[in-house]
Amino acid sequence: MNTKSQKRRLQIIEDAIQVLVEEGYANASIGNIAKKGGISKGVVTYHFRNKMQLMKAVVEYCYGLAAPYMEKFMDGSDSAPATLRAYIESNLRFMYEHRAYVTAIIEVVSNLRTETGELFYQNEDESIYEPLVEIFKWGQETEGSFRQFSPHIMARTVRSVIDSLGTKIANQDISDKEDMISEIVDTFDYATRKITK
């Protein structure tokens, strides 16, 4: 794919995100997305065969932007507890700084359906837990900085808390961002730390 084609593809995804944010999933038709970008429907369908393909690309794009953002926060962390704190904080800060992307993901994940009418994203992608599982195993098996618990269950718990805040953050329903981030980071710090007598 050449650079011009890549730019057009990314612009269509960004236009789709704007339509999802401003008008919701029901109105995020190929026609409305094309109108938002000032292009024809044919240009959109040249890059994305149908709405499902475009909506999947929106989700992949938004998640893809979060990864490098979080890595910058986590790069300087020299221990498992510090890395866990950086993971949680960077994830929440990304959501605050990119509310449109959070809203777009929520709209797609809550509405995109298969041909049989089932939610497309109803089955969890287990790979989302792997970074946390690795952090927990590092803290338990290598450093001894974390107490004994199931890394998989704790990873699900952390993700569940972060993901549950998506709608509130997107809707600006949380008044004190810094207090909320600090509270959640501290909660999992206490929940995972090894208690020494």
From TrEMBL:
DNA-binding residues: 29-48
Molecular functions per Gene Ontology: DNA binding
Alphabetized Pfam families for the sequence: TetR_N
Keyword entries, A-Z: DNA-binding, Repressor
Residues in HTH tetR-type domain copies: 6-66
Superkingdom assignment: Bacteria
UniProt KW Transcription regulation keyword: no
PANTHER family per UniProt: ACREF/ENVCD OPERON REPRESSOR-RELATED, ACREF_ENVCD OPERON REPRESSOR-RELATED
Protein name: HTH-type transcriptional regulator TtgW
